[in-house]
Design a protein that fits this description.
Number of strands: 18
Order of helices and strands: HHEEEEEEHEEEEHEEEEHEEEE
Number of helices: 5
Radius of gyration: 28 Å
Strand content: over 45%
Structural class: alpha+beta
Helix content: 10-25%
Shape: globular
């Protein structure tokens, strides 16, 4: 005759019951979360997201407005009727923008944008935003990936430089802990009756842990182009930064000429996070006649040494002309936007 199984201890029964209801609760939570994502990706959910975007205003006064959203919020979508405003009103619009991104990466402290394309846009004027918190970090403490950025045509109104311009912009960026990779190409497009011809190229690949550092910048700006009008100069500008080496030992130079005359020629070295700039500059070329121009004429020798560590720059600056000498030393904290023990 078979004997009856001994009764299950009360503690084990309670544990099994707790595990059962915990599992049911987790499954229910997953189902609810899935339903929420499905709703969020519906037309009703799109309108909800648009409402949240349009009601958001940053501390700087930047206000982003969107007309509607088409596509998937969790992949590729199209934003319609984009408008950027500052406290004085609208300063930028774009009829549409295509965004391919991975929003859930934000929970890993990562902004992951595969592609952002804006066919046409308009810049009415430069934004005038409120000053931010002086203690807020200058550099974001978050990983940023932009696989492809392209703005085909930006119409710039006369309020920016006094003239109309048409710009284009393309690039990519990857910024994370210990690494910065940026590629940017911009141009002012020559069109009938509009000044153009400006070209700007930036290439940066800085990976200290891999002992890699590559930098290249080129600017070619005609006298009536966008850069000249924006900077208020009446001469063509040609400038470049380039060099070769590693993060432990990089050597290059920065050169600039205004109207065919030398404006700056600085030797640049970077060794284990310490960057040195040394050479002559002619800032008097940008000044009207007067005491300041006389003090800096005909040339100023610049020697800048700064050591970067954890978003802080331990800096020493020496500037000498035949009439004046300027000395500055101290720490610049980029994370807190502060000067520490800085003396001039």
């Amino acid at each position: 005759m078979a004997t009856a199984a001994p009764p299950m201890p009360r503690g084990r029964r309670r544990a099994q019951t707790a595990a059962k209801w915990t599992g049911i609760g987790l499954i229910g939570l997953v189902v609810l979360l899935g339903l929420f994502f499905v709703w969020l990706n519906s037309s009703l959910g799109h309108r909800f997201v648009v409402k949240q975007i349009n009601e958001l205003e940053t501390a700087s006064g930047l206000d982003i407005d969107v007309g509607r959203i088409e596509g998937s919020l969790f992949g590729e979508l199209t934003l319609r009727d984009i408008s950027l405003k500052d406290p004085k009103g609208q300063f930028f619009t774009a009829p549409e923008a295509t965004l391919d991104w991975r929003p859930l990466a934000y929970f890993r402290n990562h902004i992951d944008i595969k592609r952002l394309e804006i066919p046409t846009a308009r810049l009415f004027r430069l934004p005038q935003l409120k000053p931010g918190d002086p203690n807020a970090p200058l550099l974001p403490d978050i990983d940023i990936d932009v696989g492809r950025l392209e703005i085909g045509r930006i119409a710039v109104d006369p309020a920016v430089t006094g003239y109309r311009h048409v710009l284009s912009l393309s690039g990519s960026a990857r910024i994370d802990d210990g690494r910065a990779q940026v590629a940017l190409d911009a141009a002012a497009l020559p069109e009938p009756g509009l000044p153009g011809g400006d070209k700007f190229v930036l290439r940066l690949d800085a990976v200290p842990e891999a002992n890699r550092l590559a930098v290249g910048v080129k600017i070619d700006a005609p006298r009536d182009g966008f850069v000249a009008k924006l900077a208020g100069i009446d001469r063509p500008l040609v400038a470049s930064i380039g060099g070769h080496g590693t993060w432990a030992d990089w050597r290059g130079d920065a050169k600039a000429a205004l109207g065919g005359n030398a404006f700056a020629r600085l030797a640049i070295t970077a060794k284990d996070g310490t960057i040195t700039l040394d050479g002559p500059m002619n800032p008097a070329m940008l000044m009207a006649a007067g005491p300041a121009k006389n003090l800096l004429y005909p040339v100023v020798h610049v020697n800048l040494i700064t050591r970067l560590d954890q978003r802080r720059a331990d800096t020493r600056l020496r500037m000498n002309s035949r009439s004046i000498a300027i000395v500055a030393d101290g720490l610049v904290d980029l994370g807190r936007n502060q000067f520490q023990d800085f003396k001039v």
